[in-house]
Specification:
15 helices; Cytochrome Bc1 Complex, Chain C; 2 domains
Length: 403
């Protein structure tokens, strides 16, 4: 009896607050359409085939959010000064266990992000998901990948330890070889003709403000294009389409209840063969993959952490900087080019041509099919590039670490 009375009393006490929350929600919903928005986001028809591979896109978004959140926490203790940057991080590593884990998650989150976004692009390339009408989404994805690389290299300079200082020195030295405006661009980034306090401040501003200011709107555009064209495009979503009759195709498209159906590049490719609901089916798969990756990042942050070398010492001329692992192929190519061609060709011409071709993939691939074996014109060069980058990275590891 006493328990029942307590329950009734609790219900009477909380009822006004529940009513207030409901009234507030209705007020907000009438003005913003929250219910309709949530319904559109969750109840969309998505392809059943290849659903686990599609989770790489959601995982990329979650990993970017992880970088933003952990970066915000790091700003509580990090001081962007050549005299205090290393000291602030060293204090965090030695006396702030939570801060050390956050810094480790920021570092390992960046490493995992590079891998996942790379796999996401490979999946899109192999499946032919960049074909009409998804060309613009592919281009935005390539630019996002370049922005992430830029965040990686600028973030590596912020600890202002030996590795960070000499990385900044090498990067700004290479930029001086940029045609026409190279010297001026180097002075802008360094804050003068020599490395100094302004160098760290400017790379900090680029890492914290400039690149994120470009990255976030591009993510919004990428997601908007995804919603417009549908979360599909891979050949596995349309297997059997070519063999179906016109009546079967009309029946399939008529019964595909998708709030945002794909714009067809071909009438047969308007709607996938086998559909599923985004919620809860695809949400579950996305959550499992994203949770597993975040858990991996947390474990690596606790077990390995983030390294911090000795404080920057410009007088240590015998220090040999080692590039981050995602720049190892480029570092190896620089060694292989003749001295006179090393930087102009290895840093600007070859990567520039490669980036241009990557952006133009949807326009260079004029094959009608999406299956990889029907697109040898792009699949064979693509496979060669991937194997070449892996081979160059292995050579760099052997050269730098004597493995």
């Amino acid at each position: 009896m006493a328990d029942q009375q307590r329950s009734q009393l609790a219900a009477r006490l909380t009822r006004p607050f529940a009513g207030l929350m409901a009234t507030t929600y209705r007020w907000v919903d009438e003005r913003l359409g929250v219910t309709d928005l949530v319904h559109q986001l969750l109840y969309e028809a998505v392809p059943r085939r290849g659903a686990w591979a599609y989770s790489l896109g959601s995982a990329t978004l979650i990993l970017i959010v992880n970088q933003i959140v952990t970066g915000m926490f790091l700003l509580w203790t990090y001081v962007p000064s050549t005299t205090e940057a290393w000291e602030s991080l060293n204090f965090t590593e030695r006396h702030d266990e939570f801060g050390a884990i956050v810094r480790g998650m920021h570092l390992w989150g960046a490493y995992v992000l590079f891998v996942v976004i790379g796999l996401h692009m490979v999946r899109t390339f192999v499946s032919g998901s960049y074909k009409k009408p998804r060309e613009l989404n592919w281009i935005v994805g390539v630019v996002l990948f370049l922005m992430v690389l830029g965040l990686g290299i600028t973030g590596a300079m912020l600890p202002w330890d030996q590795a960070a200082y000499w990385t900044a020195t090498v990067v700004t030295h290479v930029i001086a070889y940029f045609p026409i405006f190279g010297t001026q661009l180097q002075e802008i980034l360094r804050g003068g003709t020599q490395m100094g306090p302004a160098t760290l401040t400017r790379f900090f501003a680029i890492h914290i403000w400039l690149l994120p200011a470009i990255l976030v709107p591009l993510i919004g555009l990428h997601l908007a294009l995804l919603r417009r064209h549908g979360e599909h495009g891979s050949w596995v979503n349309y297997e059997g389409v070519e063999e179906e009759t016109e009546a079967d195709r009309a029946h399939r498209m008529a019964h595909a209840e998708a709030p945002y159906p794909a714009l067809p590049s071909d009438p047969g490719y308007a709607v996938p063969v086998d559909l599923d609901e985004f919620f809860p089916s695809q949400v579950f798969k996305d959550s499992v993959v994203s949770f597993g990756l975040v858990l991996l990042i947390f474990v690596m942050a606790v077990v390995v952490g983030a390294p911090l070398e000795r404080a920057a010492n410009p007088a240590a001329l015998n220090y040999v900087p080692t590039p981050e692992w995602f720049f190892l192929p480029l570092d190896q190519m620089l060694v292989q080019f003749p001295q006179a061609w090393m930087i102009p060709v290895g840093v600007f011409i070859v990567p520039g041509i490669g980036t241009t071709l990557l952006i133009l993939v949807p326009f260079l691939d004029r094959t009608p099919g999406r299956e990889p074996w029907r697109r040898p014109e792009v699949m064979v060069p693509g496979l060669f590039v991937v194997l070449f980058l892996i081979f160059e990275a292995m050579l760099a590891v052997n050269r730098l670490f004597n493995l």
